[in-house]
Please model this.
Amino acid sequence: MYQPVISGTGVFTPSQTITNDELVVAFNAYADKFNTENAASIAAGEVEPKPHSSSEFIFNASGIEQRYVLDKDGILDPDVMHPLLNQRDDDQPGVMAEMAIDAARKALSEAGVDGSEVDLILVAASNHERAYPAIAIEVQELLGAQGFAFDMNVACSSATFGIQAASDMVRAGSAKKALVLNPEICSAHLEWRDRDCHFIFGDVATATLIERKEDAKGAHWDILSTSCATQFSNNIRNNNGFLRRTRPDGMSDRRDMQFMQNGRKVFKEVLPMVSKHIADHMNEEGLDASDLKRLWLHQANKTMNDFIGKKVLGRTPEPEEQPNILQYYANTSSAGSIIAFSQHSSDMQPGETGLICSFGAGYSVGSVIVTRRA
Model:
């Protein structure tokens, strides 16, 4: 048996951003247009009018201030309100593969590893660009990697579930160096015309390199333990897969085919599940709250993270103990906790321990306990 470690991480960040103020201008223009076009039906009580959004509403509901996206123009066009991502030819790299490669190369550079040394690639994300061939196999080809590759989907917990799968295979000896990649084009499954959720998601890709401890060339993180759990719920759902409305070409426009969430039920049911999961995982490893230097939580909602952090630590966490990147990136599904880990871990000292946790649709929750090593 081998000790798996995290020796490198990488983040691909799109070049375009949308601030809350920009988003609100577009949404309110759409709402006004809708209300004008449906004035008679609204007056007759047959159609509900679209209320305005506001930057204050968005921030108070989520803690989000902006989000990165692959296509800003389509989202902010009141006549479109979704990203315009054209279908690529079959001989061109896929969008998700391109995002994943950028993040992967950053993780490999940090670890001092060449792509040809990698023998396992997992692309773990909430939505996939296509059913087959696997995006992971495309990445394997583009990276010049060896071994085998496959895709997996556990919604917002895809990264932690991927880390568990990869670390188990490294531990068992079936892989030596594994890349867990999380390319998330969340803007494409979001309903930007729904006031209750139009602000939630952004686009990004993350990469985590896992290898045998004896092969790590520099500072790394021992993966002490992983834990995953699922419980079926319909309260977060996406019925039509990936990139439902990427082009204005007459495709289905049913609201129930995109991201849907019963926010109040999710808040009520997921928070106790996640808090208990983390507590049980720590107890199994003989860890107390005082043993945790840092929590890298799924970046879904600031209120949710504050609640979980307080439950886990038994007090309100200090900002550095539970870093948030939500205000800059918004919810990036599986990638959120890895962005937080990648950007807020280098200051930790050898021997200090932290916990990566994600949670979301399924319901699903995954946690990874790691210790810094020189």
